[in-house]
């Protein structure tokens, strides 16, 4: 008999593919049976349906995907079992390997079989309920008698409350994206017809690039796609070893070279190769066997300055003769992944690659190590957009990073075009464009003013042709202008983007003295929010002031995050986390060898050499405790390899009287996130009924924390008993969803609401603390309104939280103003008087 997963493992080379090797798991697991559906753009786009059974994922490939219509039967081709770890796999399977292509998790959750699932599977007749993010209700999966190399099954939806006629609602079209991440999957164009316009160059002789030393390069298969590194807007230049480049006024383009196949992609993955055939031909002439290159395409004006409108005109007229591709990074080269190499090494390799380049088409983006203040002044005087700064030894990461920054000469960004006005006087076509931008908190599209200058006659006419087909009756913005400003406005579907410079923005969020610079086509409208500068990173200051030893020690291998970056994170969030640490006993999770080594949970100050560390003995607090509530003390804890900080529910003001209680919603890991959202809403509804104001934060792991502030009146036993009563009451109301009993076996298919955090000495991870997990997620306070918008409790991490905090808006601003206590009436109501 073949071993479980033998066929799966035989088909894959795990040194090259990012897929999990996995092992079949024996015996029952203390969680519900999970299912997942992965959207897979391989040789053809299809959906992989997987059900957990007997320690593996039984798997079927569904060419057309599932349908909610009971009248529609979907073919499901039985394929090899997959490991359970595969249920959360997303990524790119390299070309040349089995299943090559992009994979996202389209849906996931719990499946509830009717009867014995193993017996039903063996007989070829499965009937089950799904509890997923997208699919729910009863389904049938049955084996057919159709011939073929692989078993042919059929997947059919039962006619129940979750069924929908396909003519009315196509779930695949309505909800195309991942349930685990922000990933979308745009199917690749298949066949040969797409390539007929692509320039065909004679294969040049292959040669190694003279790249010098590449200290951390590693052999790797060329990825099918690459997400670019993005820069963070800052107010002032930072200290330290930085290199500065011109901030080009163009389109970000990434080039992929795989033998004779050269392709040019926008930052969002759209293939623009046919729009720039001359640049593609020049790249083919570099003689590289494989590479990813990163840069920006521009068209210069008569003064030699990049002109965005001229670039747009070049694309509109399909003339790429004047387009220059400025290259500034080289993440992959000739079978080697260079992303872990320092910037200066990648730049040296890039310079060597570009030595024979056609400078009319390809150029190296020069960098400078001069004082950034003088460089910025010069670029602004020359009417350039600004500077891009890059830390000299930074790695290449596919996300926005504080190791790449941008300094702008003036305020300029993209806006969504939401309408236009009628022309007046001698003006033709239209008068002004109405602009919108997405609110950082609510996600709503909000009115942001008008732009009526920067157009010429040709631009006005060509724009009008693009605007007219998008007209709608109602505005797309949540706060449209009223009165005279709204008279005669033509409202539009929010699809087109305008690049606009402006002098200032009013408190109401309306731009003043704005100038149109062109349309943008390389970003989706839904991604456009107001860009606000943040304080510049201070890495060199941290090196000296924080005295971080072993700063380059890798803490999280999955993201390449080192100890220095952990210190920088806590330095940057100190003003946010310190109020939550103030006078509060804290326990630390320390990781001396990073996430791959042993973790230590430490509750007292024994042998910790941390400046300003405050400690209290058992006589004072009932047990030995420590307090870390100063910036230098916090960073001293980081020097001692601290990742997580967990806090008591009481402070040094009165160790015997809690000033809050916490309900920690801890789910069966197999449950869909939707179940967590619903459980949190139910918890909030009960607390609202009791008249208790509650505050939410993500756990940074799988669940949510509901925090209820209290005045210091009740003791530990009273507070714990009250929270226990709440949890018991809720579990009694919803026994199929919630559990009041701890332990994995008691939360199978359910969510345990942990009230045990409310005993003396028990702790909960602090708001804005990192979590010692892959990716270094963060526990983050949120507003109630944000709950339904979350994709998971680990949505924010060390690398992306800065964007959320940049606007300075605190979701818990009312926390310290909240005055409430566990009155006698409340305790009687919950049966704990």
From TrEMBL:
PROSITE patterns given in the database record: DNA_LIGASE_A3 (PS50160)
State what protein this is by name.
Answer: DNA ligase (ATP)
Q: Which residues form a coiled coil?
A: none
Q: Where is this region: Disordered?
A: 1-25, 180-215
The protein's required cofactors: Mn(2+)
Q: InterPro entries annotated for this entry? A: DNA_ligase_ATP-dep_C, DNA_ligase_ATP-dep_cent, LigD_ligase_dom, LigD_PE_domain, LigD_pol_dom, NA-bd_OB-fold, NHEJ_ligase_prk, NHEJ_LigD
Q: Where is the ATP-dependent DNA ligase family profile domain?
A: 316-408
What Gene Ontology molecular function terms does this protein carry? DNA ligase (ATP) activity
Q: What class of enzyme is it?
A: ligase
Query: Could you say which EC number(s) this protein's record lists?
Result: 6.5.1.1
Keyword terms: ATP-binding, DNA damage, DNA recombination, DNA repair, DNA-binding, DNA-directed DNA polymerase, Exonuclease, Hydrolase, Ligase, Manganese, Metal-binding, Multifunctional enzyme, Nuclease, Nucleotide-binding, Nucleotidyltransferase, Transferase
Catalyzed reaction equations: ATP + (deoxyribonucleotide)n-3'-hydroxyl + 5'-phospho-(deoxyribonucleotide)m = (deoxyribonucleotide)n+m + AMP + diphosphate
What organism does the UniProt record list as the source?
A: Pseudomonas qingdaonensis
């Amino acid at each position: 008999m073949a071993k479980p997963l033998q066929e799966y493992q035989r088909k894959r080379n795990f040194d090259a593919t990012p897929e999990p090797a996995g092992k079949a798991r024996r015996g029952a697991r203390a969680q519900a049976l999970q299912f997942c559906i992965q959207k897979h753009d391989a040789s053809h786009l299809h959906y992989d349906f997987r059900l957990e059974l007997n320690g593996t994922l039984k798997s079927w490939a569904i060419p057309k995907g599932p349908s909610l219509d009971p009248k529609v039967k979907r073919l499901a081709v039985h394929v090899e079992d997959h490991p359970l770890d595969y249920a959360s796999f997303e990524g790119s399977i390299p070309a040349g390997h089995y299943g090559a292509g992009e994979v996202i998790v389209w849906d996931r959750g719990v499946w509830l079989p009717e009867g014995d699932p193993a017996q039903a599977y063996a007989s070829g007749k499965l009937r089950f309920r799904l509890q997923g993010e997208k699919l729910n209700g009863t389904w049938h999966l049955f084996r057919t008698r159709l011939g073929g190399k692989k078993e042919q099954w059929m997947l059919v939806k039962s006619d129940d409350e979750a069924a929908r006629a396909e003519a009315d609602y196509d779930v695949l079209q309505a909800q195309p994206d991942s349930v685990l991440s922000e990933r979308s999957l745009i199917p690749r164009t298949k066949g040969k017809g797409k390539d007929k316009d692509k320039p065909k160059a004679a294969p040049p002789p292959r040669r190694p690039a003279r790249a010098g030393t590449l200290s951390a390069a590693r052999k790797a298969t060329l990825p099918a796609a690459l997400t670019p590194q993005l820069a963070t807007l800052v107010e002032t230049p930072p200290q330290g070893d930085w290199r500065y480049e011109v901030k080009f006024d163009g389109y970000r383009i990434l080039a992929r070279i795989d033998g004779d196949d050269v392709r040019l992609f926008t930052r969002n993955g759209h293939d623009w190769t046919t729009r720039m055939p001359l640049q593609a031909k020049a790249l083919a002439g570099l003689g590289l066997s494989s590479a990813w290159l990163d840069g920006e395409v521009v068209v210069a004006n008569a003064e030699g300055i990049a002109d965005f409108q001229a670039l747009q005109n070049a694309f509109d007229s399909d003339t790429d003769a004047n387009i220059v591709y400025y290259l500034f990074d080289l993440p992959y080269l000739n079978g080697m992944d260079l992303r872990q190499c320092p910037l200066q090494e990648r730049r040296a390799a890039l310079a060597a690659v570009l030595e024979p380049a056609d400078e009319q088409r390809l150029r190296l983006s020069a960098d400078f190590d001069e004082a950034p203040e003088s460089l910025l002044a010069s670029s602004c005087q020359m009417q350039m957009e600004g500077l891009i700064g890059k830390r000299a030894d930074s790695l290449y990461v596919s996300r926005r990073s504080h190791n790449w920054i941008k300094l702008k000469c003036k305020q300029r960004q993209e806006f969504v075009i939401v309408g236009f006005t009628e022309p007046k006087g001698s003006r033709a076509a239209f008068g002004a464009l109405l602009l919108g931008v997405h609110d950082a908190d609510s996600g709503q599209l909000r009115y942001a003013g008008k732009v009526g200058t920067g157009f010429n006659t040709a631009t006005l006419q060509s724009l009008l042709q693009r605007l007219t087909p998008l007209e709608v009756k109602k505005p797309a913005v949540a706060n449209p202008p009223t009165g005279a400003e709204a008279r005669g406005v033509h409202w539009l579907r929010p699809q087109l983007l305008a690049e606009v410079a402006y002098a200032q923005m009013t408190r109401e969020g309306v731009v003043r003295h704005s100038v149109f610079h062109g349309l943008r086509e390389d970003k989706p409208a839904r991604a456009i929010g107001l860009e606000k500068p943040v304080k510049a990173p201070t890495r060199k200051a941290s090196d000296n002031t924080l005295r971080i030893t072993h700063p380059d020690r890798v803490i999280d291998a999955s993201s390449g995050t080192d100890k220095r970056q952990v210190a920088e994170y806590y330095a940057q969030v100190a003003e946010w986390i310190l109020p939550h640490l103030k006078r509060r006993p804290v326990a630390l999770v320390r990781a001396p060898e990073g996430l791959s080594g042993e973790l230590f949970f430490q509750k007292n100050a024994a042998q910790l050499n941390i400046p300003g560390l405050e400690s209290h003995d058992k006589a004072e607090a009932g047990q030995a405790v420590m307090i870390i509530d100063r910036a230098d003390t916090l960073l001293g804890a980081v020097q001692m390899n601290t990742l997580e900080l967990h806090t008591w529910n009481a402070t040094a003001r009165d160790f015997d009287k809690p000033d809050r209680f916490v309900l920690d919603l801890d789910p069966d890991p197999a449950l869909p996130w939707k179940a967590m959202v619903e459980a949190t809403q139910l918890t909030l509804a009960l607390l609202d009924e009791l008249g208790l104001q509650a505050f939410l934060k993500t756990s940074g792991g799988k669940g949510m924390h509901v925090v209820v502030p209290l005045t210091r009146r009740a003791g530990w036993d009273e507070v714990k008993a009250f929270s226990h009563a709440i949890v018991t009451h809720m579990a009694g109301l919803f026994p199929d969803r919630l559990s009041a009993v701890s332990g994995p076996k008691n939360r199978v298919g359910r969510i345990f609401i942990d009230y045990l955090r409310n005993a003396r000495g028990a702790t909960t991870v602090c708001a804005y603390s990192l979590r010692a997990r892959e990716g270094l997620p963060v526990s983050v306070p949120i507003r109630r309104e944000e709950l339904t918008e979350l994709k998971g409790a680990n949505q924010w991490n060390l690398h992306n939280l800065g964007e959320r905090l940049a606007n300075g808006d605190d979701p818990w601003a009312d926390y310290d103003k909240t005055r409430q206590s566990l009155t006698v009436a409340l305790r009687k109501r919950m049966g704990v008087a």
